[in-house]
Write a structure and sequence with these properties.
Rossmann fold, ten-stranded mixed sheet, about 15% strand, seven-stranded antiparallel sheet, about 950 residues, alpha+beta, nucleotide-binding, Calcium-transporting ATPase, cytoplasmic transduction domain A, disordered C terminus, elongated, calmodulin-binding, 32 helices, calcium
Length: about 950
């Protein structure tokens, strides 16, 4: 059993004993030795919540096998494979070539192999995707840092490395990563709504309610805490563990309810009675599951600094699958409509083929039923399944997902981490951007560049000798003490590097000002430690200032305060004038200082900060001091923060990022309105906005302060393998090639698309219908007169088991060539004539294009029985390529047709996704038009489907 100081670790110690122990270790913290860290991890655990075990590969394989289409094809494959070995004597059967006779079993086996390929690819893709998301989550968690004291020094460590016994520095804005006990606090208030649901901020202190819990937000103040529980032993870890168990229980309950519902349905079908109880239970279980999922998602969203739990992962994953962006929803709706149409056509195809076979065999030829006819019926069924597989346009939603995933990966290389794929699409539709100033438009590396001390404005920073000694001492001590001790300036990693600013950047600028005066602020802090503070008025959005009260050496107290100049000036009654003489700070002097110093600094884009102080003395008080008989009522902030003595005003520069003006110009050129939101002085905001290009000369603009802004808001048919190969080219490979097209600067010249804009614009519809017309004319021409023009044997009227012909091979090859060359046209969708521009900048596109072309050559020349093709001569290949290149010339003619003269009814998908109208059926028409007589073979149905998923997903996995 693990022990501490000879006592079982789980027995622990009291809060009083803990505080007494930490009084001696509060400054030093843990030693940081490897042995101590390992001992604490072994005893108390790590600050990591183990994630839910991932699904095994076999589990994913089993889930992939549940696809209805796969089940149908598995049955069809087994039937086809069995019939291939059943060959009863039949004198009416056509005489087959030896090659065809000995390869009848290939069709059924090919389907089974294709099913295996599809299942393995699907399972591998899901497995890889889960690993990627887990890796991303680990990366996000690893980037979260927290300040702790180890070996007497403040250091930033990953939240996963926090140990029990660590002294952690807590400050405004933190999300606590572990449970702890406060040993020192300054006006600390915590939001515990993630645990209790109460929105009121809870005041915490070393003496009153000292326990702080993981997953809660620090809304105000600062302090130090000793970590008492981490990982699964912390409050957040306990909740996540229970939540994960609840999810597992709910899933088991749902499975149980489903079984009961099935039994009830069987009884209902037998007895005619309805059992509403089972349905009610199933509904309740489903509702409970949704409740748990929503809670898990909430917990994860609020727990950015807390390691993600298993339940959160499951819940978030479930919720994420239900979310779809606007474009994905529209495309899914369109794909479903096309799928319905394809299903109808598939069913009609099977019915018509069976009726045709029955009439011809039993009515016209008057033949009796034979067992061999079962093979024909199975082939007709597989034809229908083939049509169904080809008709479902899985590439539509996939194209968007693939494009977004590719974009996210490209942006990650630019250090732009996108956690939700649909955010890319949302930003593409944005018409306005409201940006924070500090750290977004500016570098967030602040430096004091101007100062006003003792009625002297310095645009070059002074030295301590330039300032009266007593004023200089007050300024350096006031800044050093009245700043969060978590704010520091550290030396660069390499000689010559700029100092590293840690913590609040405004305070770092002031500390840099103190260093510039030649004073070491850390020496002052070592002398006046945080535990000597009498009271701290922490910064918040209401105060816009910070105050610290410390005891004076000769008795009494001194209040140091700093904050926005316009706030501090109103509370000042005195100021140090020329040569450091104390003067009354009259209203006229305040207005003059604002007019001549503060406003010019603000107009230069500087953030102005004033530093002031006030003394509370027990004896005789000077003019700017306050006599006290006892300790003042520090809760009476209004009376404490008055009659201050102004020490200085400094102007802090936060330079605009060099890339910002050009980026804003691009946004404005693209029709996006950029607005800046900041808490700075209105003159500072105007200056920065002008430097960024948000405000331009001679432009109408509006600058609103918060109160005015809030007030205004309140006021206002071919061969099966050939068909599926075409499906691969037109659907998935085209999606992969076109979805990875690089964005061009011309993209910023168009206006954003609204949510209700049509999915298919008139320009796109013009191209679709135009190319469809060209391809239909060519295909029908080759079908009915191609054998005469090319002097080849006609393939029309062939029997079901007939071998491949050059006639239909040319038709198939021509269609693929037209599709391939039309992919080049599809790179430009806004009417651009130069479709070749930028072609070589996308290696994925031309690699896929060349791969498809080479694969097509092998399929035509060497496919034979497997692909139902017959080798073509060079002249025949040139004719196919000629018709393919014709799509490029035809595309230029289509571009010449003015889009504005086309009726608006040609645009599809207008409105919200749920209002989407019936989708077009162009895909089925194209495939049906290739060959209405040639019947598909069954051997390649799922082989191309497997290639489809493989080719589509490999790009996302490999990048």
């Amino acid at each position: 059993m693990a022990t501490i100081d000879g006592r079982p670790a789980q027995y622990g110690i009291s809060l009083k004993q803990l505080r007494e122990l930490m009084e001696h270790r509060g400054r030093e913290g843990l030693s940081g030795s490897t042995a101590d860290e390992e001992h604490r991890r072994e005893t108390f655990g790590s600050n990591v919540i183990p994630p839910k075990p991932p699904k095994t590969f076999l589990t994913l394989v089993w889930e992939a096998l549940q696809d209805v289409t796969l089940i149908i094809l598995e049955v069809a494959a087994l039937v086809s494979l069995g019939l291939s070995f059943y060959k009863p004597a039949d004198e009416d059967a056509p005489v087959l070539q030896e090659e065809e006779e000995h390869h009848g079993w290939i069709e059924g086996l090919a389907i089974l192999i294709s099913v295996i390929v599809v299942v393995i690819v699907t399972a591998f893709n899901d497995y890889s995707k889960e690993r990627q998301f887990r890796g991303l989550q680990n990366r996000i968690e690893g980037e979260h840092k927290f300040s702790v004291i180890r070996g007497g020094e403040v250091c930033q460590i990953s939240v996963g490395d926090i140990l029990v016994g660590d002294i952690a520095q807590v400050k405004y804005g933190d999300l606590l990563p572990a449970d702890g006990c406060l040993i020192q606090s300054n006006d600390l208030k915590v939001d515990e709504s993630s645990l209790t649901g109460e929105s009121d901020h809870v005041k915490k202190g070393a003496d009153v309610d000292p326990m702080v819990l993981s997953g809660t937000h620090v809304m105000e103040g600062s302090g130090k805490m000793v970590v008492t529980a981490v990982g699964v032993n912390s409050q957040a870890g306990i909740i996540f563990t229970l939540l994960g168990a609840a999810v597992d229980e709910q899933e088991a309950e749902i499975k149980k309810m489903k079984k009961e519902a099935k039994k009830a349905n069987k009884q209902k079908s037998l007895t005619g009675e309805s059992d509403g109880r089972a349905q009610t239970k199933g509904t309740q279980a489903q509702n409970q599951r949704q409740t748990v999922s929503s809670e898990g998602t909430k917990s994860e969203s609020e727990g950015n600094h807390v390691p993600q739990s298993s339940s959160t992962s499951a819940a978030a994953e479930t919720g994420h699958k239900k979310e779809k962006s606007v474009l994905q929803a529209k495309l899914t709706k369109l794909a479903i409509q096309i799928g319905y149409a394809g299903s109808t056509i598939a069913v009609l195809t099977v019915i018509i083929l069976i009726i045709q076979f029955c009439i011809k065999t039993f009515v016209i030829d008057e033949k009796p039923w034979k067992n061999t006819y079962a093979n024909n019926l199975v082939k007709h069924l597989i034809i229908g399944v083939t049509v169904l597989v080809v008709a479902v346009p899985e590439g539509l939603p996939l194209a968007v997902t693939l494009s977004l995933a590719y974009s996210v990966k490209k942006m990650m290389k630019d250090n732009n981490l996108v956690r939700h794929l649909d955010a890319c699409e949302t930003m593409g539709n944005a018409t306005a951007i409201c940006s924070d100033k500090t750290g977004t438009l500016t570098t967030n590396r602040m430096t004091v560049v101007q100062s006003y001390i003792c009625e002297k404005l310095c645009k070059v920073l002074p030295t301590l000798s330039d300032i009266p000694q007593h004023v200089g001492n007050l300024i350096t001590m006031g800044i050093s003490v009245n700043s969060a001790y978590t704010s520091n300036i550290m030396s660069g990693h390499n000689p010559g590097d700029l100092p590293i600013q840690v913590g609040n950047k405004t305070e770092c600028a002031l500390l840099g000002f103190v260093q510039g005066l030649g004073v070491k602020y850390q020496s002052i802090r070592d002398e006046i430690t945080e535990d000597k503070f009498t009271r701290v008025y922490t910064f918040n959005s209401v105060r816009k200032s910070m105050g610290t009260v410390i005891p004076r050496p000769n008795g009494g107290y001194r209040l140091y305060t700093k904050g926005a100049s316009e706030i501090i000036m109103k509370k000042c009654a005195f100021i140090y004038g020329h040569e450091g003489n104390l003067e009354k700070f009259t209203r006229d002097m305040q207005e003059r200082l604002i007019r001549e110093v503060i406003e010019p600094m603000a107009c230069d884009g500087l953030r102005t900060i004033s530093v002031a102080y006030r003394d509370f003395v027990p004896g005789k008080a000077a003019i700017n001091e306050v006599h006290i008989d006892g300790e003042p009522n520090w809760d009476d902030e209004e009376n404490i923060m008055t009659n201050l003595t102004c020490l200085c005003v400094v102007g802090i520069e936060d330079p605009v990022r060099p890339e910002v003006p050009d980026a804003i110009r691009k946004c404005q050129r693209a029709g996006i309105t950029v607005r800046m939101v900041t808490g700075d002085n209105i003159n500072t905001a105007r200056s920065i906005a002008s430097k960024c290009g948000i405000l331009r000369p001679n432009d109408d603009f509006l600058i609103l302060e918060g109160k005015e802004f809030n007030r205004r808001i309140r006021d206002s048919n071919g061969d099966a393998v050939q068909m599926l190969w075409v499906n691969l080219i037109m659907d998935t490979l085209a999606s992969l090639a076109l979805a990875t097209e690089f964005p061009t600067p011309d993209l910023l010249l168009r206006k954003p698309y609204g949510r209700t804009k049509p999915l298919i614009s008139r320009t796109m519809m013009k191209n679709i219908l135009g190319q469809a017309l060209y391809q239909l004319v060519i295909i029908f021409g080759l079908l009915f007169v191609g054998d005469l023009i090319l002097d080849i044997e006609s393939g029309r009227g062939q029997e079901l088991n007939a071998g491949p012909t050059q006639h239909f091979t040319i038709i198939f090859n021509t269609f693929v060539m037209m599709t391939l060359f039309n992919e080049i046209n599809a790179r430009k969708i806004h009417g651009q004539r130069n479709v070749i521009e930028g072609l070589l900048t996308n290696p994925i596109f031309y690699t896929i294009w060349i791969f498809t072309m080479i694969s097509q050559v092998f399929i035509i020349q060497y496919g034979k029985m497997a692909f139902s093709t017959k080798a073509l001569s060079l002249d025949q290949w040139l004719w196919c390529i000629f018709f393919g290149i014709g799509t490029l010339v035809w595309g230029q003619l289509i571009t010449s047709v003015p889009t504005r003269k086309l009726p608006k009814i040609l645009s599809w998908g207008r409105g919200h996704p749920e209002e989407y109208t019936d989708a077009m059926n162009l895909g089925e028409e194209r495939f049906d038009s290739i060959d209405s007589d040639k019947k598909p073979r069954a051997g390649q149905i799922l082989w191309i489907r497997g290639l489809t998923r493989l080719q589509t997903q490999v790009s996302v996995i490999s990048k």
